[in-house]
Every structure is written in structure tokens, then in C-alpha cells.
Amino acid sequence: MTTPASDHTAPTNPSPVYATPGLPRRLAAMVYDSLLLMAVSILYGAIAVGINLLINGTPATGERVSWGNWGILVFIGWLLTLVLFFCYFWCKSGQTLGMKTWRMKMFDDNKMQLPSVKQCMIRCVCAPVSLLLFGAGYWLMYAFADRQTLHDKISNTRILLLSKEPKN
């Protein structure tokens, strides 16, 4: 045996040992990651409200916090925070916590290395569109022989299912 079972580097040519995960596994990882994104969003919202209160002061009793022209910037900042969350983890390790839990890892489809920032950004834009179109981008994985989703193909990335680590 030349490589240890815990080695999670992808082969130069994907083989049956490194299978492509199915849709249920991908959806389960998305549920895990959505819980993390909720926490990140709550933290972002708390910081944004705190800054708004420092700038505009506390509203009178019964009044709502007014965002004024800053509302759109806060929204764009929130979207960028979510994109940075995914890009950071995908570029650093190829996995979010949900992907790690479900033994999946993302690779550059050509080099079988960790994806570039550009690939991660493209994926962050395309994946929600795939999901919003009634999951069409995800269902297309059953139409492609290599079982990649539409955003896998567009971003030139590949999700592989990692082998189980031996229990000690």
C-alpha cells in the first residue's frame, strides 16, 4: 500500500475508488452548511445593526431601525460574506464543514488540485441559480455520464466522495 487510507488527495485520473457523490449526499451537506450560514448571517446582522445604531442612534420606542440608503450596502455586504465563507473553505481545504461531514471534497477538474479563487467565485454565482431553477442544475447530474452538476461543469470543478477513514 503506497498511500495511507487517510490521505485525501485526489488521483490524477478519477477512478471508481473516488466516486462522485449522489444528490442526497450533496443535499445533506447543503443542510449542514445552511446551519452554519444562518449563524454567520446572524453575526453579520448583529454587527450591521450595531454599526447602524452607532451612526443613527437608538430609535424611539415603537419605531423600527431605519437603514436609509445603507440598506442595499448591508445586503450586498451580507451576500459577499456568504461568498467569502464558501471561497475561503473551498480554496483552503476543498471542503466546507458540511462537505467534510459527508466525506466530499472539491477539486479543479483539470489539475485535480484545490480550486482557484476564480473557480470558487464562479461556483458561488452558479450554484444558487442551479438551485433556484427547481434544482435543475443539480438534477442534470443524472444526465451527464460523469455525474457532475451544471455548476461543476461551468466552474470546471469536481466533487469527489472520499474514502472512509479507518476507526482507531
UniProtKB/TrEMBL annotation:
Keyword Plastid set for record: no
Pfam families noted in UniProt: RDD
One Gene Ontology cellular component annotation held by this UniProt entry: plasma membrane
Keyword Transmembrane helix: yes
InterPro entries reported for this sequence: Pra-immunoreactive, RDD
TM region positions: 35-55, 67-91, 120-141
Protein's organism: Cellvibrio mixtus
Domain RDD: 21-156
Location relative to the cell: Cell membrane
Keywords per UniProt: Cell membrane, Membrane, Transmembrane, Transmembrane helix
Name this protein carries in UniProt: Transporter
Membrane topology: Multi-pass membrane protein
